[in-house]
């Protein structure tokens, strides 16, 4: 029902606006990684606690400590995916294309689950990304920056948290009867998550901050192997489609 959903929708929209403003300020002046991380955690925590946007609610009752486990997991997930898409914004068309592919599979999941508002929200995101990609593929005329990539990553993460992938308490809800359905978002977003994890490990092993940019992303490593920038982006798009 719309009257029940509206407060969450408004909170979601305000969260995206805050992240966009933060990203634009960072693109222009540089806010520092720890401030951006704190704001992301604060927004994700507020949505999880006060607007019931939570992953894995099923684990709360058996552990006997209330919603704490699912809140922690949800905040971690939202911050992880938000930064994964931000990290992928390192070549023309890369973050936008991977996000459009991921959003398409997530929309299909929401449609199969008859979660119409989530599917419609993802459709709007896909349309915006495709329109953006017309001008963002090499040679790019416009760019995402943090003002765009943080918003996209946050939107994907929250919409995943609102999608029912498995619910044993209600027969016929979720995407099938197997508990392993909860891993669907990990498969769909495997490419940006892989990039975030591997480049962070490389930087830490080199004694550097994982938040300081360099040329060690998955796309850069493919170029180092002999692909062109366009070729690397195309390969990563295809891999994202395959994992989806």
Can you describe what's shown?
This protein is mainly α and about 240 residues long. The chain is about 70% helix and about 0% strand. Helix 1 runs antiparallel to helix 7, helix 2 packs across helix 4 (about 70-90) and helix 5 (about 95-110) runs parallel beside helix 7. The radius of gyration is 18 Å and the shape is globular. The chain starts with a helix and ends with a helix. The model has no long low-confidence stretch (mean pLDDT about 90).
Which descriptors apply to this entry?
single chain; 244 residues; mainly alpha; 0% strand; globular
Please count the beta strands (DSSP E, at least 2 residues each): 0
Query: How big is the Rg?
Result: 18 Å
SSE run: HHHHHHHHHHH
Mean pLDDT across every amino acid position: 90
Shape: globular
The SS-based structural class is mainly alpha
Write the layout of secondary structure elements.
Layout: H1 2-28, H2 33-50, H3 60-63, H4 68-88, H5 94-112, H6 116-136, H7 146-162, H8 184-188, H9 190-205, H10 218-224, H11 229-243
Helix pairs in contact: 1-2, 1-7, 2-4, 4-7, 4-9, 5-6, 5-7, 5-11, 6-7, 10-11
Short description:
This protein has helices spanning 2-28, 33-50, 60-63, 68-88, 94-112, 116-136, 146-162, 184-188, 190-205, 218-224, 229-243. It has 244 residues and is mainly α.
């Amino acid at each position: 029902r719309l009257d029940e959903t509206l407060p969450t929708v408004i909170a979601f929209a305000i969260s995206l606006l805050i992240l966009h403003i933060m990203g634009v300020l960072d693109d222009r002046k540089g806010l520092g990684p720890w401030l951006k991380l704190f704001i992301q955690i604060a927004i994700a925590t507020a949505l999880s606690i006060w607007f019931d946007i939570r992953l894995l609610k099923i684990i709360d009752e058996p552990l006997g400590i209330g919603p704490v486990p699912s809140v922690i997991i949800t905040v971690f997930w939202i911050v992880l995916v938000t930064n994964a898409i931000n990290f992928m914004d390192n070549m023309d068309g890369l973050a936008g294309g991977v996000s459009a592919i991921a959003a398409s599979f997530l929309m299909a999941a929401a449609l199969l689950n008859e979660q119409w508002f989530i599917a419609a929200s993802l459709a709007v995101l896909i349309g915006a990304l495709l329109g953006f990609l017309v001008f963002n593929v090499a040679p790019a005329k416009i760019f995402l920056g943090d003002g765009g990539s943080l918003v996209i990553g946050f939107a994907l993460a929250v919409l995943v948290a609102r999608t029912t992938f498995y619910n044993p308490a209600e027969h016929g809800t979720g995407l099938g009867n197997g508990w392993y359905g909860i891993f669907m978002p990990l498969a769909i977003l495997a490419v940006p998550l892989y990039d975030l994890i591997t480049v962070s490990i490389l930087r830490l092993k080199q004694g550097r901050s994982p938040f300081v940019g360099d040329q060690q992303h998955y796309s850069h490593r493919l170029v180092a192997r002999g692909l062109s920038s366009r070729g690397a982006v195309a390969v990563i798009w295809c891999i994202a489609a395959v994992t989806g």
